[in-house]
Predict the 3D structure of the following.
Amino acid sequence: MKKYISRIGQLGAIAVAMLVLPACQKNFTNPNDASNQVVFTTTRGVTGVAIGLQRNYTAGRASSLFNKITADGFITRQFFIVNRGNIPEDQLERGGGFVDGTNTILAGLWTSSNKIIFDANNVITAANGLGDKNYASGLIGYATVFKALALGDMAMFWEQVPVGIGQNVGFKPRVEGFREAITVIDGALAAIQANPISAGFNSNIPPGIDVLNTLRALKARYALFVGDFTAALAAANSVVIAKSVFTFNGVNQNPIFETATATNNVFQPIDSTMGLPAAIAPDLADARVPFYISIVPGSATRFRIRGFAQAGLTEWPLYLPGELLLIRAECLARQATPDLPGAQALVNQVRTKTTDALGLGASLTALTAQLNQADLLTEIYRNRCIELFMSGLKLEDMRRFNRPNSERGRNLMPYPFRERDNNPNTPADPSF
């Protein structure tokens, strides 16, 4: 059995104890654990904490992955609720003022994001002090993947994000959260360039994540979100398209499958429109629809989850090849001097591909007539919604593409009461 499994076991009790602390405290130290200081002085200890980042991000209903996908799916009308006894999901489906600081899905995402940033900071600091710089660069890159995801997740859902980790911290505009993610990614990329990741590091972490290309893909994503099209295009072009995924096992299953797909008691896809209005709904021939959604005739929940949550061991991608093509297309379409033919050619690559590294293809015909900028951006948005279904990115896309408020339940989320009750710096909630 791989060494990383035993390390998770050693640190599991610490990780679980930390996760149940209230988010408002942001005090993630464990004063009762005498070994906590020792953990960060050894390569083995730092590796164990780094692996814990992936567990915190992906394991179970309390994970960032579950909460991000669920919140985004309901707010953007991708899901319908199967059982209204699931109160947090019910609030998100209703949207508007029904979503308040009591929502445990949003509170869970807030808590886990802060916890991941705290632990990632410790890993990065400790790794910089290790003698084996090639192993250290792996730790820095791996921890930065999760820190960047946590920063990006908070920036996608809240109008302002904390300026750091600690009690009574201040806040900054959410765009600065994306910029901070880009900055830490740049730091990790520089560390890896100076000292390439060692094979020894790769053998000691869970399989699946391509650290270098994931960092490049995340930089492209967040640079796009802040409107830095030059940086986003360069980062997207630098990615060597390969599969980079979260993997699962019998103990820690795919969290969407475990809670929603398997039980059929929480949520399912709204229908084969994927929540898109009729004018831009998926083509009936689009192979991405049956990839993501199955049909059970005669059932009250006729449309069911497939795709990257169809089984307990189904891998979950950190980025999709199609996402990178669409980032490149959008950058070309939005840059100061738009390259509309180049952008449309990239959209056509997404439309016509029959498969990719993740087995996802649309198998549609290419668009032949050249679209104007507005229509091409609408086509890019449409393809992002279909290609990246259930990715947790749609709310950010809806704001960027100026989609009508009527297509979503909220623009930005209220702050958890646990934060507001304990941090006088917590901003006012957005009106919608």
Q: What stands out?
A: Residues 1-25, 29-34 have pLDDT under 50 and may be disordered. Strands lie at 79-81, 160-162, 171-173, 245-246, 267-269, 293-295, 303-305, 316-317. The first helix runs from residue 3 to 19. The radius of gyration is 21 Å.
